[in-house]
Design a protein that fits this description.
Helices cover about 70% and strands about 0% of the residues. Helix 2 runs antiparallel to helix 4.
Length: about 100
């Protein structure tokens, strides 16, 4: 079941600002990396392929295309895991 806009809004309001900022930084990094790749490899053939991929449901992508999406999903999961880890208190005064 897809998440609603209302649920997304509630989740974002409950997240610490730093959590949102770090995810936004990752989003920008992934976007910039893809945009740079696209600029360097911009051909009519690639434009056709990318348009086809944009209009294809994930379940219908090739295994190679799915792997690329899973790699990006893994980047997101690693960042979320990093942000969800409890931060250790490095105050050495209580040793």
């Amino acid at each position: 079941m897809p998440i609603t806009d209302e649920e997304i809004g509630r989740l974002v309001r409950e997240m610490p600002d730093e959590f949102v900022e770090q995810l936004a930084e990752l989003a920008h990094h992934i976007w910039a990396r893809w945009t740079e790749y696209m600029i360097v490899h911009l051909t009519v053939g690639n434009l056709r392929r990318w348009r086809t991929q944009c209009n294809t449901a994930y379940k219908d992508l090739s295994d190679t295309e799915k792997k690329s999406d899973r790699d990006i999903a893994t980047e997101w999961l690693l960042k979320i895991h990093e942000l969800a880890e409890p931060q250790e208190d490095h105050d050495d005064t209580n040793i």
